[in-house]
Amino acid sequence: MSALPLIIVNPASANGATGEAWPAAASEVRHHFGAFSVAFTRRGGEAVEIAEREARAGRPFIIACGGDGTINEVANGILRAGASAELGVLPSGTGGDFRRTLNIPTRTADAARALREGETRAMDAGRVSFVNSRGETEERFFVNVASFGIAGDVIKRVKSRAGLPAGASRLLGGKVTFAAAALQATLAFQNPTVRVSLDGGRESRLTVTNFCVANARYFGGGMKIAPTAKLDDGRFDVIAIGDMGALSVLANSYRVYLGTHLGMRDVRHARSRRVEARPVGTEVVKLEIDGELVGRLPATFEILPGALRVRCPK
User: Fold this and answer.
1) For position 184, what pLDDT does the model report?
2) Please, are residues 303 and 126 in contact by the beta-carbon 8 Å criterion?
3) Residues 158 and 71 reside in one and the same domain
4) Domains in the chain: how many in total?
């Protein structure tokens, strides 16, 4: 097994812009970081397989080049392998939320230098059990934010680009793309009612606009949903945005971007090591993990303290 760092590139991320920009990006990385190996994904889920195989074989440093979904897949591969491989991030994608918490630069040259000169930190990861599209119970890891509620509808719109201008994610950037999708979703979404338990405690019945189980601080293309979250404190930050109407959501959306929403009357904030959530009745409540729609409730979220080694800027 090569000791060279491996960069797993998702050429389809950022609406294909990552693949188009890769030749120039590769040159920048070699100049500012050094030698590396590269593997390109051709379908969803392949980054998990590559990262798991390489981590099991002893590859010491595996770098995800893409958006939050690509980072999630590479992290899943490393965690499935149970190996000591280190995770790195070379940002390129629509959302870019996990790299915000890590304070990784967006310019390729700066990100490459951060990968070369950065420090290794042990960070928490989340593990979630849920019901997938086939009606089967499935388990995945996540590093950023898992949520249910309106976020699932927003992500569906971003991925399908339904009602969004052609090439929006490329021309406008991730933040504007997510904001446009959020506006459309807010006007059409019906808030679900769920039952939630924290750390095995008594269930609460909640009607929510969105419910977030956060390991990191940002989601939705730059929303500072969990402003006090820490990646190494052994707990999730749990944020429940209550039964707000469309006008109230729109009027207060700026607070979520600024991270000043935790003091609002309709927002609840707690910290927990384990979160259990299930729908009330037969309602289908979609679940998203690190910006990808994966299935639906019921779901159980568990924190894994210090489970992942990540290269961070000093």
Assistant:
1) 72
2) yes
3) no
4) 2
